[in-house]
Write a structure and sequence with these properties.
Radius of gyration: 19 Å
Number of helices: 6
Number of strands: 18
Largest sheet: 14 strands, antiparallel
Distance between the termini: 30 Å
Helix content: 10-25%
Structural class: alpha+beta
Mean pLDDT: 94
Order of helices and strands: HEEEEHEEEEHEEEHHEEEEEEEH
Low-confidence stretches: none
């Protein structure tokens, strides 16, 4: 049975500062757990830590996260060690280190606060998406049932779905008329399982989208080299800035815009904006990722391996 997102990102406390997780093959790209899933596991561990060990801080919400992916993770068990770095009245920061088989593979800093009690200056900046995306769906229930409406259509021909297994866990609805620009992806997301998105699942949301390479490949090469091969896009680092809390029960739909500014020598940046169905900014994210052949993903891991 395919684990739900909640099951795939679950953590269990071993002691006050140690947590256990399990990475499942259905949430992987090739043999490597999807970076967004790993990020959501870190968010779950941080939230659990602030709900239990650091409950006295009364800071239940992640407001920022910085993650460095130092080595490939793998399917199976993982251990997360937390160090309380700074405990403050308004914000507190912890360090998380994820290891498998004695290798420290992912490290990050997570900052928490209480967004329900935040107060201070608020101003309207006049910011909006540019260029604007197609009009928002008017009936999300109908879009989910039919798989399409006047402006959005579900992606059903996902490239390399047996390699990018995690893509089968998400329903992605793309502009019917194509993306507004090469190097940019607009999408509405909904989990295949029917689960709702929570703040802890924003790690996955920030890293789940069709490849930007496909559109750029077609526009720059004019189809001279056919379709792009099965690239692997390992994340080097991921930053997440969470602007608001989602309802406790979560939300069914989220909008995501992804844009790259430079893809050079197999390395690219990604800028991600996540909005709710009211058009409010839920989170902002920035990634540095590599563009590698799929064979790098599936290569056997040396016992002393220190490379992606």
């Amino acid at each position: 049975m395919i684990p739900t997102l909640a099951e795939a990102t679950a953590v269990k406390a071993i002691d006050t500062h140690t947590y256990a997780a399990e990475f499942h093959t259905q949430w992987c790209v090739g043999s490597v757990p999807h970076g967004g899933v790993v990020t959501s596991v870190l968010l779950r561990a941080a939230t659990t830590h602030f709900r239990t060990t650091l409950a006295a801080q009364n800071q239940p919400h992640t407001i920022s996260l910085h993650v460095e992916f130092m080595r490939r993770t793998q399917e199976g068990p993982a251990t997360l060690k937390i160090r309380d770095v700074k405990l403050g009245r308004q914000t507190s920061t912890i360090h998380i280190a994820l290891s498998q088989d004695g290798r420290e593979e992912v490290v990050g800093y997570v900052t928490h606060s209480n967004m329900d009690t935040e107060s201070g200056l608020s101003l309207k900046t006049g910011w909006s998406l540019h260029p604007p995306p197609p009009p928002q769906p008017t009936d999300f229930a109908a879009l989910g049932a039919a798989g399409e409406d006047a402006n959005w259509v579900e992606q059903t021909d996902k490239p390399f779905p047996n390699f990018r297994k995690v893509s089968n866990r998400m329903r992605m609805f793309l502009p019917r008329g194509g993306q507004v620009l090469p190097g940019l992806v607009d999408e509405w997301l909904r989990l295949t399982s029917g689960e709702n998105f929570t703040n802890e699942s924003l790690g996955l949301v920030s890293d789940m989208f069709p490849s930007l390479i496909d559109g750029l490949w077609a526009s720059e090469l004019n189809g001279r080299h056919g379709s792009p091969p099965a690239f692997w896009y390992p994340t080097v680092l991921l930053n997440l800035d969470i602007k608001k809390t989602l309802p406790p029960e979560g939300v069914e739909w989220l909008f995501v815009r992804v844009r790259a500014k430079s893809i050079r020598n197999g390395r690219m940046d990604l800028e991600i904006v996540i909005l709710d169905d009211g058009g409010e900014v839920v989170a902002l994210s920035h990634h540095v990722a590599l563009v590698l052949g799929a064979e790098r993903n599936m290569a056997a891991r040396r016992v002393d391996q220190n490379k992606i």
